[in-house]
Specification:
Oligomer: single chain
Shape: globular
Number of helices: 10
Largest sheet: 8 strands, mixed
Strand content: 15-25%
Helix content: 40-55%
Radius of gyration: 22 Å
Strand order of the largest sheet: 1-2-4-3-5-6-7-8
CATH class: Alpha Beta
Number of domains: 1
Distance between the termini: 90 Å
CATH topology: Rossmann fold
CATH superfamily: Alpha/Beta hydrolase fold, catalytic domain
Length: 281
């Protein structure tokens, strides 16, 4: 009797320790294409923008934050393209990195993000529509470039663009348009969606081939997918428009690697500043 009781107890414990069949199936199933990319790992949140972050309207119902160094200028300016995060905020640490090196920093919010109303691209599930929205949103980037060139203390002849993830896509698209910029630094462009979207792959490779200004494409080695550097970056080099650079792994995991663009300026900063300075001479 005691032996039978022990057997029953062991069986019950064993059953409780095993995940249900549905959980096993879920854990072993291949990852599905993400409906929308996760936001880039952001810098620490701040409840209010710092005093030097000027909220501006760069086009009708399009707003963003402009930082300018102290002094008379005119200053070169980085137009920063935020990622897929719906609330890009004002990125003070990244902005102040550039400002302390003599650069103005403009963070325009594209339609559907932050202070600019519109349909949020992260809510769209159809890949073809997402690609079409990327083209539409690029008009906001162009409007931001046109606006910032007319501002006090800004040198309109030394405008560059940079951005991360979805903002990296925007940066590469912009660099292929005749908008009067001098250089582009895309970080991790489309790294989270690359494997799921052949349309995105074709679009970024075409943007690399058609680039009008020098580009430095940057990723960390532990980003989600290094194909943007290896394929779009290779196209930049073949066309004589720039190159890609893959830095050592940053932090732990793919999300940390993807957030290298906003959190790793102590690492990539000297290289980017040297590249931009040379491109804007």
């Amino acid at each position: 009797m005691i032996g039978r009781l022990v057997v029953v107890l062991v069986a019950v414990v064993a059953c409780k320790s095993q995940p249900p069949p549905a959980a096993i199936a879920a854990s072993s199933a291949p990852a599905a294409s993400p409906a929308s990319p996760a936001p880039v790992a952001e810098l620490p949140r701040h409840r209010e923008p710092p005093p030097d972050a000027e909220l501006v309207e760069y086009a009708a119902e399009r707003r963003g934050f402009l930082y300018r160094p102290a002094g008379a200028g005119p200053f070169p300016v980085v137009v920063w393209n935020h990622g897929a995060e719906q609330r890009p905020g004002w990125q003070p640490e990244l902005a102040h990195f550039y400002v302390q090196h003599g650069w103005a920093f403009f963070l325009p919010h594209r339609r559907g993000h932050g202070r600019s109303p519109g349909a949020y691209i992260g809510d769209e599930r159809d890949d073809a529509k997402v690609l079409a929205m990327q083209e539409e949103h690029n008009d906001d980037v162009v409007a931001a470039i046109d606006w910032v060139k007319r501002q006090a203390k800004i040198d309109p002849a030394r405008v560059v663009v940079s951005g991360c993830s979805y903002g990296g896509i925007q940066t590469m698209i912009t660099a292929a348009r005749p908008v009067g910029i001098r250089a582009a630094v895309p970080f991790a462009p489309g790294a989270m969606r690359w494997r799921y979207s052949e349309g995105l792959q074709r679009r970024l490779i075409r943007a690399a081939r058609e680039a009008r200004v020098p580009e430095l494409l940057i990723q960390a080695d532990n980003d989600y997918d290094l194909s943007p550097s290896k394929l779009a970056g290779a196209e930049l080099e073949r066309a004589g428009h720039g190159r890609a650079r893959i830095y050592p792994a940053f932090g732990t995991g793919a999300q940390s690697g993807h957030g290298f663009c906003v959190n790793g300026f102590d690492v990539w900063g000297p290289d980017v500043l040297a590249f931009l300075t040379e491109a804007t001479r």
